[in-house]
């Protein structure tokens, strides 16, 4: 038996979907499959709408300034999304825990996964490990999965761009 990795992978998927919102149900399904999710039921426009609502709520968690506010927003998501834990072998890849009802369509499934995954990520790694990129003009969100918890940028590209900007500012003096 293995514990389903709700934390890091799901939070990275949430950031990816929030940063580049899927435009169609087909795109949503493809991106979820690429991220390793098992999509068992057909994906509908209603799933896309529900996913956008989930991402709107998740981005409020990302943007929360204080830990207590972040926890309250996330607790509301958990109360609305999570079900009691259950053992499953739905994909025949070994028994693991799910914190959601079986056979959900993708919209409600993502609501549960993102809520529980974000809670486990923040509780396990630290309440400040979800943020926006530090580069001015970049609004991308990301989950800090670094060993030290000091990740400031959404990507290596933004880190390099900021380093070049700082270097040029120093040498221009």
List keywords for this structure.
single chain; 173 residues; mainly alpha; two-stranded antiparallel ribbon; 6 helices; 53% helix
What would your notes on this structure say?
With 173 residues, the protein is mainly α. It is built from six helices and four strands, in the order H-H-H-H-E-E-H-E-E-H. It has helices at residues 8-19, 25-34, 45-63, 67-81, 106-125, 156-171, and strands at 86-88, 96-98, 130-132, 141-143. The strands form two sheets. Strands 1-2 form a two-stranded antiparallel sheet. It has a two-stranded antiparallel sheet with strand order 3-4. Strand 1 and strand 2 form a beta hairpin. Helix 3 (45-63) packs antiparallel against helix 4, helix 3 runs parallel beside helix 5 and helix 4 (67-81) runs antiparallel to helix 5. The protein is globular, with a radius of gyration of 17 Å. The N and C termini lie far apart (60 Å).
Sum this structure up briefly.
By secondary structure, this protein is mainly α. Helix content is 53%, strand content 7%.
Helix-residue proportion: 40-55%
What is the alpha-carbon Rg in Å? 17 Å
Oligomer category: single chain
Strand order in the sheet with the most strands: 1-2
CA(first)-CA(last) distance: 60 Å
Shape: globular
Structural class: mainly alpha
Uncertain runs with pLDDT below 50, 5 residues or more? none
Order of helices and strands: HHHHEEHEEH
**Count of runs of 4 or more consecutive helical residues:** 6
* Total DSSP E strands: 4
Largest sheet: 2 strands, antiparallel
Mean pLDDT: 90
């Amino acid at each position: 038996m293995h514990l389903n990795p709700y934390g890091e992978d799901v939070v990275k998927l949430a950031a990816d979907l929030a940063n580049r919102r899927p435009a169609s149900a087909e795109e949503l399904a493809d991106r979820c499959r690429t991220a390793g999710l098992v999509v068992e039921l057909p994906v509908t426009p209603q799933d896309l709408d529900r996913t956008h609502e989930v991402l709107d709520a998740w981005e409020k968690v990302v943007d929360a300034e204080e830990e207590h506010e972040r926890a309250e927003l996330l607790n509301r998501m958990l109360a609305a999304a999570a079900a009691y834990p259950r053992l499953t072998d739905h994909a025949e890849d070994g028994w693991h825990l799910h914190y959601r009802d079986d056979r959900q369509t993708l919209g409600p499934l993502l609501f549960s996964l993102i809520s529980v995954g974000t809670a486990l990520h923040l509780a396990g790694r630290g309440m400040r490990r979800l943020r926006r990129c530090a580069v001015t003009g970049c609004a991308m969100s990301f989950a800090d999965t670094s060993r030290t918890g000091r990740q400031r940028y959404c990507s290596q590209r933004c880190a390099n761009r900021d380093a070049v900007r700082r270097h040029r500012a120093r040498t221009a003096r």
